Amino acid sequence: MRTEVAIIGAGPAGLLLGALLARAGVETVILERKSRDYVLGRIRAGVLEQGTVDLLARAGVEARLRREGLVHEGFFMGFANRRLRIDLTELTGGRHVTVYGQTEVTRDLMDSRDAAGLTTIYEAEDVAIHDFDRDTPCVTWVKDGVHHRLDCDFIAGCDGFHGVCRASVPSGAIQLFEKVYPFGWLGVLADVPPCSHELIYANHARGFALCSMRSPTRSRYYVQVPADEDVGAWSDQRFWDELRLRLDPEAADRVVTGPSIEKSIAPLRSFVAEPLRFGRLFLAGDAAHIVPPTGAKGLNLAAGDAYYLSEALAEHYRERSDAGIRAYSERALARIWKSERFSWSLTMLLHRFDTMSPFEQRMQEADFRYVESSRAAQTAIAENYVGLPL
After folding, report:
1. Among 137, 292, 293, 351, which one carries the catalytic annotation?
2. Do 112 and 172 sit in the same domain of this protein?
3. Residues 200 and 240 in one domain
């Protein structure tokens, strides 16, 4: 087999990159080690920046999002049973975010790719990338016991934090930056109406809590737990009781409980790899960076990578120019680090740390009071939350 761009990973980054390249007339093949159903079974983020919605429209997959997505013009931050609304639309000149689950984004991109007759190979085992430091890279894998090879011009590593692409880069050619947080988010998905029409991010003495949603009838809630917590120790009733304790009285009274559809613990980390280009191999999405979910940036950063890389590769084929390819890493990393800073700062503001001294606790309280009293501080949060320009 041969293609122009081999994309490793059928998550949002790889699928969106494939869709954007198809619009530009660039051939792609996507390889994914898991099954289609497994990929669609991942429960992930659901807050899309306006720029991400615009990219999905450019890729031609916005129809269902426009019908079913929930436009949010603000969100709430809670501290010590007080609630502050960040008015995104008013503070950013009319911009907003859209609540639409990552699973639905992935499904829309998969369906669009299938309808266009583009090649995606699921359950590809033992994927390996070769010769990306030369002019003739290729990818090999095993499917149903048969060995396969794909020759290509470029390889896009969109295969996640534990994928083969970043791991294939020589250690001396890449620098890794990482902060692992001592807690995770215990998340519950339930078919109950949300307790608030907009998201609530709450700092409480017992720990962080988040009230989110996937639709007017499906809610996604989280509470902060130790990183080594056993999800099996949390019954539905224990979760609902703990969630209510961490919310302000009005929000707590509005929580409707029900059986969980899914319950899991997501660890929190900040991670960036530099650079993002190694000859004819590019890293994008979770292969390149991880952000804490506090700032709702993971999927949106992956979309930004797909945009930058698609533009660079389209320029290569349309204009026979490699200027975009040479600039990809620096261009993407400039936006990545700003989003990392925002996610880190919200994580530090809204979570409780076991190692936090009384002085540090007072500093956290002072930070929140400053945001309460400062339009400039609220504007900075709003600008980052709706998404920095592409």
Report:
1. 293
2. yes
3. yes
